[in-house]
Amino acid sequence: MMNQNKSGVKALLKIAFNYRYALLLIALVLVFVPFFPFPEKEASNTVFFLGRFHPLIVHFPIVLVFLALIFELLARIKWLKLTKTVQATLLGSGLFGSLVSLVMGLLLYATGEYSGDLVTRHLWGGVLLAITFCLACFFFLEHVFSNRKVHFISYLSLLVVANVALFYTSHQGGSLTHGADYLTEYMPVLGSPDEEEYEPKPMEEMLVYEDMIIPFLDKKCMSCHNTNKSKGGLVMTSYEAMLKGGKSGKATLKPGDHHESELIQRVVLPSDHDDHMPPEGKAPLSPEEISILEWWVREGADTDLKLEAAKEDPSIQSFIVEYLQDLEKQQRAKFMQEQALESMIVQVSNDKKFQLGMDKYGDGKIALSMAFPPSSFEDNDLTSLQPLFGQISKASLVASGISDDALYHIGQMDALKELYLQQTAIDGSGLVYLASLPNLQLLNLSKTNVNDGNLLHILRMEKLEELYLNDTEVSLEVIEAIKKNKPNLKVALERGNFF
Ligand code: HEC
User: How confident is the model at residue 346 (pLDDT cuts 50, 70, 90)?
Assistant: First the structure.
């Protein structure tokens, strides 16, 4: 019986050996996978269904690939005796599991539910792992049948590389699932900062650009002029980008010449002028801020200019002192606010159904998103966030189990600017509650059951700028009517992005 089994495996190994070049072919095909143009259009339900098994299935090959290396190493130091049969079984099932996981991962990727650098790195890691593991299997077969040392060394090195890729990919995957600081979140830190620890920078070290100018440009300009959203083609998040300027081709910043610097010219225009910055409705720069900015440009727009220099210049010193006091107060308040927010986030975040992070351009507000892999986030789960309602500026409830009733609670999130509700079962009857949100600018209702009648509630959303309606039952007539009624609203029939 035993012998029969053994020779069965041997025969299988022989077959595998005969077809070993297929492994090279698979490895070659895999090289092209990350470059595959994934279709823009909505993925089918089967793709969603299969794709979501990826986080579950992936644990099998992780163990197998790891064990294949560990066994081989233990055999090297004569800790255990490893038969070719055992190792072949580990390698074969590991390879099969890796390829199945990779395919499912690609399906999940194709749903478009995940995008960004982290996903791209995870994809590359997974592909590298599959390629190196494929090649390791190839050299293993060569080694079994030829018993040449060079084959064994190639096999072992590739197995090591595959495991490095495995570690990297799992870490990226874990970060996707649990947030980038998952591993380090509870790392012991000595003396985490608290309110008393706020220490302003000593005066002699303070720089005009970094410590005075950036804070107000960040607050009043960068929400529209950053690398994600660069209105007028202008990015202001770095000095170099400002020097580059925007679409007009005029210099945004011309060191030494404030008359030729659009940065100044745009802010000193009368506030009702079309070109005034920031545009109407946004908090303008104060006269003090304008004076400091102008003075700094006149002095050569040097990023190393010390604040001490400003204090000595009679044309500017008078309000520098006052402004500095204000600035310190603001920074202290911001520090406290962030501390308070952080501790609130920690309190409600025990629930792993959702994630909270800072909304980078939300004036210290919070972004709410769903956990991955998706777990059953429902109406009740939303109420556990009640203490934070006023602090949420971006909310993504994509593919969650919420109903229209949840929109009643969302209607209390006064700071909310962006709301992503795609792939939920809502029919839009709760949209009426959102009409009272004073800041709502973006609403994504793609792939929901929203119908014509219920959609009309959006007519009362005054600040709404973007509406996404991919794959809904809404009729083109109603869309036309909405466009007529709200000419400034961008109604998009594409899926729209999410986070
Ligand atoms: C609400 C969004 C918004 C905010 C906030 C905003 N801008 Fe703009 N900015 C725009 C838009 C839109 C344009 C393009 C239209 C135009 O040129 O007027 C623009 C264009 C500009 C340009 C011209 C770029 C070029 O050369 O074509 C400058 C300079 C500029 N902004 C400076 C500022 C400054 C300084 C602030 C802060 C005080 C600011 N902006 C805040 C939306 C904004």
Answer: low
